Amino acid sequence: MLLPSSLQGKFILIFFALVIVTNGLFALVAFSRENIYTANDAVDAAVFLGSIMQRPGVAYFESGNSETMDRIFRYRTGISAKLKLTLYDANWWRLWGDEARIPPEGFPDMSLVRAGDVLNGSGIIDREMLFPLGDGKRILGMVGIGIPRVDLLRVRATGSEFMLILVLGSIIGVSAAILLSRSLLEQLGHLTDSINAFGRGDYSVQVSNNGSGEIRELADSFNIMALKVQETFRENLQRNRVIDEKLQELWEIYELTRNMSLSVEFRVILEQFLEKAQTLSFSCYGRIILQNRYSQKLEPAVSSEASLQVDHHEIYENALNTCFLEAATISTETDGCSLIFVPLLTASRVKGVLFLGKKDSHGYSDGIRRFLETIAPVAASLIENASLYEELASWNQHMQNILASISSGLFAIDRKANFIINNERLLKITGTAGQITAGTSLREFCDSLPDRDFSAVFKEAVESYLNDIFAAEQNKSRTCRELELQTPSGRRIVEILLSPLYSNYDVRGALIVINDISEQKNREQQMIETEKWAVLGRLAASVAHEIRNPLVAIKSLVEIIGEEVQGDLKEHARVVLGEVHRLNRVVTELLSMVRPEMANLRSCDLKDIINELMLLIRHEASRSGVKIKVSFPEVLGKIHIDAEKIKQAILNIVLNAIQSLKDGGEIDISLADTPEFLTITISNNGPEIPAELRERIFEPFFTTKTSGTGLGLAITRKIVELHGGRMELESGADLTLFRIILPHGEAHGKANS
Length: 753
Known about the structure:
By secondary structure, this protein is an alpha+beta fold.
């Protein structure tokens, strides 16, 4: 661009340019300040509008009346009228107001939103302010206020005003330049050239002027201004470089923290931190030394692959100990190597030391030193957290191992009857399918139990105990109960132990232990049975001796009397003789019950034994009007048994069945063979045996018959158990069934009783 040749023209042009630039800068600053004020006014208006919408919004959710919100919406003025106002429900569905606006990052979780939280906007919306609505218990919805861009919020014709000022200032400036140019001299041209150069960014320009008066003062002022601007520019450049360095450090700290926080493995975190510290400090060797929590000694945790031969150097040892004890960064040199020791501080406690080294004697700069001191506490916190997590995981594993090793079922519940912890044995004892997790309620657990009767009693017992221990007037100690539990494997007897669960002397819940005491009960019953049989044996031997001798004399005398008398006396003698025979049979059976016996095992065919038995009972069954049916499988293997004793056992059951079928009936005898067992099933269609009698039917001397001894079924069970087998009884309407289950093999059974 060519300047006018005349001084006046140049001055006018330069002055006009200065006015334009000055007014333009003023307009730019004014516009910027106006934008700031407008944006602040919009935020204040949004906060105010969100505050006054709280109560009408809650009322809308409670009653569905939007009259108050509509009135607020209609009578907005100024910047408030340009804001976008929308009411959302708890699922971010628009209920009222302007169209829904979806933030670029999506809608947040309402439970995390606080009043006045700001999200990024989209389109003409610059920002979105959120105000949650709640009734004190839950979040009902959200008021969203969209703040448009600043250029859409202006309510005054600010641009026109500044343009008018700019035009008027230009006219006045040109007029003043024309009036003043007549008194100016040619030397203003130098000043004009300098100003133009300064305007192009040449801050080193200086005006050389030999004039005097105001022109000289103006030139001097310009030179001073140029020098100050140049100095300020250099300071700004230096400050920007420092800021860039700090930003880079912050970015490195962020990257280090983010990468380390992605892992919970203690050694991985240490290796990542050491690698980053070594790289950013330009070190060729690094090591992290931590204090052993047990021995309290400093021990290397991780080291880099490269090494410096200073591990046991006196300087290294002294610097390491000083750094740890005084919690201070130590820099030193040895053998042409630079070393630095940085304490790993967390909560004013030194957890360890970061040691770095490089093969030069120039040391570490202050910038690197400050950077290492900045990242050390961050890394120390992460290392501490990882160490605690590792220790917690170890303790948790120990606890799981202990729980798994306990033979009892165990679980703990809180005061709301929700599970805190349990072991796998609990599921096995109760026969529960699936898994139980923390938070599972007692009701859900009891609903999953297969035995509904046990479930109801167990649930009532635990809930009652839980209510007692939390009652202010109660001081409940440990409680023990025994319950019957029906599982897929059979009926079990379990012991329930209930104890308070304490936390710092306060009751937190209850601890329930379930022991399967079925085997213990069986052993106790066996001991009772053994003791009973021992007493019975001694009694039987004594009674047999005392009764049989008189019986022999009575029998002989009655037989003599019976031969010598006639009529009723002879019949009376026959009755007495029958009773003597019956009493002798009772003594014989009693001795058979209690006498130790040997099982003479040999390979037998049960079909032959049952066929022989049929010959013995055929007449008795026919006289009682009872039909006996026998069914054998086509293939039936032999079994090692004492044939005579098994025949006696079957005979006792069949005779009992015949006696129970008073008006005739049917008896079925069948055999079933499996690789493990051979089963003899004897059933009849007689009357049902009541449940209370089934429990005692195999007890000695228990009978419901007026002329029975109560020893037949007891002897039968003893014979079966002598063979290592077991007996089962089922009884219902029109069907009573006995099973004799005998194991295969030559090694089963007992050598003696």
